[in-house]
């Protein structure tokens, strides 16, 4: 019996009693574990499934991807923000190159200075200057590619590639800073415009959302607001029209200036045609003088018809240019014929006067149209004000509308009778 009791006790020690409703009161509250667990349906033994995309392998894959993307972001940040320190101290692995370049440039400058001083003190002839020129050609191999400049304006020291890079970097930085300032300014302007727009919108909403004592929309306030808006739009429209008119006027002037080249008809002829015009004038003057002499000789010594034949042949020979013109009596004949230049000038002036007359007529028609449009708009506004009248209760005034319609019918009848 004792051995059987011992066995039972050892079993109880090895296998503790499970928590049940029966022995709940026997176990202390501190021994009970309170853990939050995800709800799992009874038909599933584990949380998640491959079909739903929540399997164990899928979770592990997501975790690995997250860590990998995190590393990539860190590397990108490190690359995108390099610490570029442009100072006078050169990098260690390139220091010997920069120092050698500076030394070479200094030696070249010193050599050139010595040559200039020697040239100023003892100007050598061309034959003796040949050895010096060979030495300069040997020393100035690096400066052959550069453009030649006068000695006075020549720089004391050339810039190294490091200094050039530094200047380029500073120029880009200033350009970027300027762009940043402009962007900030534009952003502030946009924000200010948006604030004003929202403020106006709120004011409009407050006006239109007013109610009467009975809780109905206040139509009188709404009508006043709309009338005010119409008046503002009309004033804005007139200003806009004025600006548009001025702009179009400028465009027309520019178009005229382009389409009508400045032709100055003066006594000074164009250089490339001057000899032709002068020769034509000279020929016409000679013809006129010849005719004058013939008329005087005819008046003093009137010859018979037989003797007049040789003179007539000479006149026919000289007056070849005037055969096409209609013959007039000698007393009314012009002293000098008009040159082609003078004729062109007169034609140009005639066209200009015609154009000016057309312009005046167009301006007059435009003013008449504007006046008619103004009267039409005024009448339309008066009609709107009559028809938009309200009663004390805020309803349309039908009596006023009927009176207006009767008046209109009577006016139409009177016009028809006339």
Automatic annotation (TrEMBL):
UniProt-listed InterPro entries: Fyv7/TAP26
Compositional bias segments (type: Low complexity): 125-144, 304-323
Composition bias, Basic and acidic residues: 1-11, 102-120, 145-154, 164-173, 180-196, 280-299, 324-333, 343-352, 359-375
Pfam families from the UniProt entry: rRNA_processing (PF08524)
Domain of life where this protein originates: Eukaryota
Region called Disordered, residue ranges: 1-21, 102-196, 280-375
GO cellular component: nucleus
Protein name: Thyroid transcription factor 1-associated protein 26-like
Organism, scientific name: Acipenser ruthenus
